[in-house]
Fold:
Amino acid sequence: MSSDSLLALRMRHRVGALLVDVDLRLTAPWTVLFGPSGSGKTTLLRAIAGFVRPEVGRIAYRETVLVDAAAGIFVPAHARPVRSAAQSARLFPHMTVQANVLYGGGWGLQREQEREVAEQVMAVFRVQGLAKRMPRDLSGGERQRVAAARAVLAASTAGPLGSTLLLLDEPFAGLDTGLRDTILPELWSWVTERGIQVVSVTHDVAEAFQLLPDVVKIADGRVVAQGPVEVVLAEERERLLGRLGR
Amino acid sequence: MDFEALGLTLRLALSTTAILLLVALPLAWWIASGRGWARALVQAAVAMPLVLPPTVIGFYLLVAMGPLTGPGRFLIRVLGHPLAFSFTGLLVGSVIYSLPFAVQPLVAGFSGVEREYVEAAAGLGAKPGRVFWSVVLPMTRASLLTSAVLAFTHTVGEFGVVLMLGGNIPGATRTLSISLYDLVQDGNYAAANRTALVLVGFAMVALMVIYLVPGSRVQDGGQADVVR
Structure:
């Protein structure tokens, strides 16, 4: 992967009792933010997406400055080369699954091309049979996968190859692991083929190890460690294996 | 039964509703999308007709549209006649008088759309205008209907403002509620009753529409919301 895929993030921001204070450079095609709940992972993701305005800091993706608090720069979410899916699915209740998945389609694709891409993305997330259904008729897990598919389609059609950042906040939380293990490798090849850089959030060690990404370990709003998953999460892995009775 | 007054009332109510929706949609969206004293001030101003006697509104509009004020003199110069005692003047009065009835259901509806839906759309690259038309508005259809129906019926039932501002000119400013008042003054109770029944019918049908149409704000989980 090209090493110029680069997200530079420096910010200080208070959310309730938590002070998020980080200085990060993400170069890997896929980075996992790992840490316990309430550690500030989601706040970081929301700051990159444009839903949190850091009190102090600077966020830049490639050559584009997204936030520079000192200079008063704040690019609104929709204008960023960033597509995101939040932790809760938030499918638009008045649209079919297909319309939801197509909502973020862009970059002048023909309607038919978009439909084709939508079908492929839905197949990756194993929701291709649900195209005509309404969100209220889906199970929680199905909704979550449709929401992830929607963000992936948006990122896949947002701009020229390799120009878009995709943010996924716990995309597989609560999903049965068998399904997750089938989807993840396909999603991995989907995004790497298209040069989409991904930052995802998880607190699941197994999920982190399946992707072999770079990991940023976060606790109490600070970066504890950053590097390859085998190094950063070695301790967690041992603990998990120990619990499995190895 | 004064059919001219009926026609005029309908024309006034329809025009008022159309203008109010154009005004109320952006206004309600702005009010609902934040906090602060500026919004509180605007919201209070919008709600004024709810608590003020309609004659107060009518009085100030009459003065404002007349030759006693700068804007009034300007209007007279531009139009060639005072705005008061004309259909247009009545329309201006009705829009102000019914404004809270159009704005408040929409504010309630927009506030009920969880912030996360707006963020989900923005996170997919949708510009604010598109988010409003394709996500927020379809999710608040019931509020939009309530807003339109209330603006319409409230205008049909308007009396004080019309009396102060419009006088009683057949075909121009004489609405059904004024006609009813005249009929009672003349002791023509049979005709007054027919006119009153028409007004009752309007109100009843409109309220039925609001309560019959299911809350179309269907949430993620599938439960429908009540009309507010």
About this structure: Chain B is about 75% helix and 0% strand.
